[in-house]
Amino acid sequence: MANYIENAKPDLQKSVDRLDHDLKNIRTGRANPALVEDIRVEAYGSTMELKGVAAVSIPDAKTIQIEPWDKNLAKEIEKAIIAANIGMQPNVAGTVIRLNMPQMTEETRKETVKAVSQKGEQAKISIRNVREQVREQIAKDEKANVISEDEKFRQQENLDKAVKEFNEKIDKLVKDKEEEVMTI
């Protein structure tokens, strides 16, 4: 007998992990290294993530400081940050690059909360898609007499419990991020 839920859990977890990663990249008014770590920088003839070519630190709540390990990359990092259009202009002092977080207005906070909700809904859609794939597999196996009708209903019930559990994780991530955004 196939364990449909155990086979689906990695896909369900990927949806939650992807949401978590996406939410870390959303600006909240507080400095966070995740806002810039994944920016692609042209370095040594290829593109690399910023975290692979520089140290990213947070000296205070409103400043992100970037120190390239190779001093010659400061200009490339500056160009990459400008091209990434993250809503902050880099201030270059020698080889140190500083980004000052702009104050979020009430309007930008509401827009950000809306974006967070949309990302949460996208994650729930991907979970629903996984659920439907598993349901189709269960129905197909029942038709092929691989599992009994009772087992089909038992598996569908277990699937619904797992989906509910993952949807609750998504709701918690979204709620926590919305609170973080709305906190001044």
**CATH C-level of the largest domain:** Mainly Alpha
Structural domains: how many: 2
For the record, give the distance between the C-alpha atoms at the N and C termini, rounded to a whole number: 53 Å
Taken in chain order, the helices and strands follow as HEEEEHEEHH
Query: Helix content range of the residues, please?
Result: 55-70%
Number of contiguous helices: 4
The average pLDDT is 88
Unreliable residue runs: none
**What class would the helix/strand composition place it in?**
alpha+beta
C-alpha Rg (nearest Å) = 22 Å
Describe this protein's structure.
With 184 residues, the protein is α+β, with helices and mostly antiparallel strands. The chain has helices at 4-24, 74-84, 106-143, 149-182; strands at 40-43, 46-49, 54-60, 63-68, 90-93, 96-100. It has two domains: 4-24 and 105-182, Ribosome-recycling factor (Topoisomerase I, Chain A, domain 4), CATH 1.10.132; 33-100, 2-Layer Sandwich (Gyrase A, domain 2), CATH 3.30.1360.40. The protein contains four helices and six strands. The strands form two sheets. The protein has a four-stranded antiparallel sheet with strand order 3-4-6-5, with helices on one face. Strands 1-2 form a two-stranded antiparallel sheet. Helix 1 packs parallel to helix 4. The longest helix has 38 residues, at 106-143. The mean pLDDT is 88.
